Amino acid sequence: MIARPFGWTGVKVAVIGQGTWRMGESRAAQPEELRALRRGIDLGLTHIDTAEMYADGGAERLVGQAVAGRRAEVFLTTKVHPQNASYAGTLQACERSLRRLNTDYVDLYLLHFWSAGHPIADTMRAMEELVRRGWTRFIGVSNFDVRQLKEAQAALTRERLVSNQVLYHLRDREIERDVLPYCERHRIAVVGYTPLARGGFLRGVVAEIAKKRARTPRQVVLNFLTRRPSLFTIPKAGRPEHVRENAAALDFTLARQDLKTIDAAF
Ligand SMILES: NC(=O)c1ccc[n+]([C@@H]2O[C@H](COP(=O)([O-])OP(=O)(O)OC[C@H]3O[C@@H](n4cnc5c(N)ncnc54)[C@H](OP(=O)(O)O)[C@@H]3O)[C@@H](O)[C@H]2O)c1
Predict the structure, then answer these.
(1) Range of the domain at 187
(2) From the CB of residue 14, how many other CB atoms can be counted at a distance below 10 Å?
(3) Is residue 180 part of a domain?
(4) 101-118 mean pLDDT
(5) pLDDT classification of 199: cutoffs 50, 70, 90
(6) CA 122 – ligand 1 centroid, Å
């Protein structure tokens, strides 16, 4: 497992974590999902990402079970839905999340999307209050562009944004244009979501590089997506064997030529 400083905080966080979107939806799938999350923690995928929105709280409840008895090993992230992101609504949403997660704090609390309905200043003020109460260690945002990041930063008086969680996979590298350079200048950790882009790398240059390096195409993808110190990723895997594959994605280094080849192809 590889961990590295999470933005300006210096706190070491697993470069590859675990997503939980679509988990906790079906009772039948839950035992295997629970096994997968726990296996992931065993293998060092200790950054667990969830949200109040996922399975209407079901994903948070599942995560609560997965981390029971080992809360301190895990860097736990959850998110407030923009509809709830008024000042009071944010505090209440966080309290509900903590209850479902069966913990008294999260490590990172994010605004899930820019909220059209609630002034960003109100949400950020609530976020600062959550830190003051000890309900979250750090605060951040998700799906924010540079203009939105600046507005959120300007609204903060006591705390700093730690992270921006954004879409990042080989077929969508949009963040590399503005968001990533901006976050790097401000030492905001960039957590990429949907890294596996729902598959499809079994042929082509990624597959060729994987074969040459005796890895799987998904391992090459995850390795590439975390090639800079500012980059983290949170693949979701509901099956233990998938978790095992993802956890071994960083025990090799892509050659400069491999990076160039992927750059050119995507
Ligand atoms: N902030 C946001 O707005 C936002 C939006 C989307 C996602 N996210 C977060 O990011 C996480 C990841 O994104 P995502 O769930 O959209 O997509 P993803 O992680 O790119 O892909 C998940 C899919 O890949 C499969 N998979 C994972 N590892 C595999 C492996 N080694 N071999 C074969 N298949 C594998 C999973 O299957 P199995 O489940 O069967 O293992 C699942 O079907 C989410 O779960 C969520 O926590 C955040």
Answers:
(1) 3-199+222-252
(2) 26
(3) yes
(4) 97
(5) confident
(6) 31
35 lines ligand 1 (CB under 6 A): no
Confidence of residue 202 (pLDDT cuts 50, 70, 90): confident
Q: What CATH code is carried by the domain that includes residue 45?
A: 3.20.20.100
Measure the CA–CA gap between 109 and 32, rounded to whole angstroms: 27
User: Count of domains in the chain?
Assistant: 1
Taking only the tens place, the pLDDT of each residue in 126-172 is 999 999 999 999 999 999 999 999 999 999 999 999 999 999 999 99
Average pLDDT over the chain, rounded to whole? 97
Report if residue 237 sits inside a domain: yes
Tell how far the Cα of 24 is from the centroid of ligand 1, in angstroms: 14
**Nearest protein Cα to ligand 1, atom 8:** 193
Q: Output the CA 238–ligand 1 centroid distance in Å.
A: 9
